[in-house]
Amino acid sequence: MFSKACEYGIKASIYIAQQSLQNKCTNLKAIANEIDSPEAFTAKILQRLVKNEVLDSVKGAKGGFLIEAAKIDRIMLEEIVYAIDGDSMYRGCGLGLKECNACKPCPVHDKMVLVRKELKKMLTETSLYELAHGLEEGITYLNRL
Q1: Of 60, 61, 71, 78, nearest in space to 16 by CA
Q2: Is 145 inside any structural domain?
Q3: Which residues form the signal peptide (predicted)?
Q4: Which residue from 31, 32, 55, 69 has the highest number of Cβ atoms inside 10 Å of its Cβ?
Q5: Residues of the chain with pLDDT under 50
């Protein structure tokens, strides 16, 4: 459903939020290792997230990435997705047809409208804190099994 870059961006943001809740700044190498992503690709994704003010970066020997603790509960999943993929998941045809709209719908058009509505609701109502807290409590997992 999400692009690979967006998947990595979400996983990285959750991991950075978890570390930030413990007052830790996390470097690129640790993030890439944790989310099983190539470092160069991860760096580009993190740059986008910094540019869109989802993450903060700290330069220097002890630098890395973090999120202000007070900001973690205000960052919604939608912001991360938008920073990486824009709003493309809300547009276009579910079957990839060039012409698909309410007047000339494809066979899955009406179902996609419902799916996108639910997806948007989930993305706008899910905070980064909620996701990071799930990791902290051991309710959810980010590592590969």
Answers
A1: 71
A2: no
A3: none
A4: 55
A5: 145
Residues 33-52 as b/e (b if ≥16 CB within 10 A, e otherwise) read ebbebeeeebeebbebbeee
pLDDT tens-digit readout, 32-41: 999 999 999 9
Residue of 30, 40, 22, 64 lying closest to 11 (CA atoms): 30
* Residue 8, domain CATH: 1.10.10.10
Provide the residue range defining the domain that includes 38. Answer: 4-136
* Spatial CA neighbour of 29 closest among 59, 55, 65, 68: 65
Tokens of 29: 């190498």
**What region does 54 belong to: left with phi over 0, alpha with psi -120 to 50, or beta?**
alpha
The Cα 57–Cα 2 span in angstroms is 24
pLDDT score of 29: 96
The domain tally of the chain equals: 1
Structure tokens at 104: 């000339």
CA–CA–CA angle 117, 137, 53 (5° rounding): 55
